[in-house]
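pinned: reference chain
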Amino acid sequence: MTAVVVLNTDNTALHSVSVQHAVKMLVRQVATVEEALEGHRIGPYPWPVVLRLLRYVKTTFLYARTPAWSKRGVLRRDQHRCAYCDGTADTVDHVLPQSRGGPNTWLNTVAACTQCNNRKANRTPAEAVMTLAYRPTVPTWREAYHRRL
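pinned: its structure tokens
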């Protein structure tokens, strides 16, 4: 299933949704099909590629605050790349381990592969003689949740 881009009434991309969610939006009449896959239909609707909302959605909240920390957000921020070996990351590592009081924050977590995470274990990167390829940052809301647009 492919993602469908949702545009605000002013042509700004808000987010992407599944085709199933897009059809629900069409049924509820909150959006119209801006671009469709030619020759394909889902019931009475063309197969959507891009939807446009019928009413404007205020988006100032996207820029007003930092997003809440989440493991999924850390993986997206770091583009699923391990902070230690640059391999594919599938987990999150705490720079200062939780057992030592390290919090679940953007600045204390990085994406890591399971092998590097296990090797680092309950130590800081310096104690484990592992170097971080980058310093963790606090992303903007858009960076954390809309990289794919």
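why pinned: The CA atoms of residues 100 and 122 lie 8 Å apart. Residues 66-145 form a domain with the DNA Binding (I), subunit A fold (CATH 1.10.30).
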